[in-house]
Amino acid sequence: MSSGGDLPRYVAIDGPIGVGKTTLAHRLAKHLQARTVLEEFEDNPFLREFYLDRARVAFQTQVYFLLARYKQQEDLRQPDLFNRAMVSDYLFAKDRIFAYLNLKEAELQLYERIYDLLRPRLLQPDLVVYLQARPEVLMRRLRKRGREFESGVDVSYLEELMRAYNQFFHHFDEAPLLIVDTSDMDFINNEADFATLVELIHTTKEGTRHFEPPRG
């Protein structure tokens, strides 16, 4: 299938750490003959320390991410880039999830002022795909990929993160939204699972749509 027809031109995939956003973005972009737009999280110089001591460097980590994501998203407005379909492994607006999760009140007020200056100038996705998974599944996936700087992540943080994501997307109405529980799905090794997702993307045109496959 190509990126033509009535498929969305700009798909943003999001969800908590370990849910499989980047892996899916690569495969979906290849399938749609689209360009991938990947979050550059490993370039954040505060990230390693953030996982060790969230409170101490939360504001620096958050502002770095906000400005880096803004610069990348602003570049997407260039006509030579936007002429091609795109699949991103993050949604810019989700930055606020982590701000409200990690920042103190005074820091949050300053963050909001910066965010409000940046947000109106960016492109809106034609479809947002929110990937969910049970915290124990996320933990298992994190351990499997074995990134050293993620070794400080525990199940309680993932539970807190899932609650924050669910709250954010419960109120999200800036674009059509597809919510998929990936706990019992494998988009890379299971062709039927991937085909199901592509069909959901193809047919989700407005509002919010939920998909949860049968367990087992």
CATH C-level name: Alpha Beta
CATH homolog superfamily: P-loop containing nucleotide triphosphate hydrolases
Q: Helix fraction?
A: 40-55%
Radius of gyration: 17 Å
What number of structural domains do the residues give? 1
Structural class: alpha/beta
CATH topology: Rossmann fold
* Range of strand content: 5-15%
Q: Which short descriptors sum up this protein?
A:
globular; alpha/beta; 6-stranded parallel β-sheet; disordered N terminus; 216 residues; Rossmann fold
Question: How would you characterize this protein structure?
Answer:
With 216 residues, this protein is an alpha/beta fold. It has a single domain (10-211), classed as P-loop containing nucleotide triphosphate hydrolases (Rossmann fold), CATH 3.40.50.300. 49% of the residues lie in helices and 12% in strands. The chain contains nine helices and six strands. It has helices at 21-32, 47-52, 54-75, 79-82, 95-102, 105-118, 135-145, 155-170, 191-203, and strands at residues 10-14, 35-37, 86-88, 127-132, 177-181, 208-211. The protein has a six-stranded parallel beta sheet, covered by helices on one side. Helix 9 links the parallel strand 5 (177-181) and strand 6. Helix 3 (54-75) packs antiparallel against helix 5 (95-102). 30% of the residues are buried.
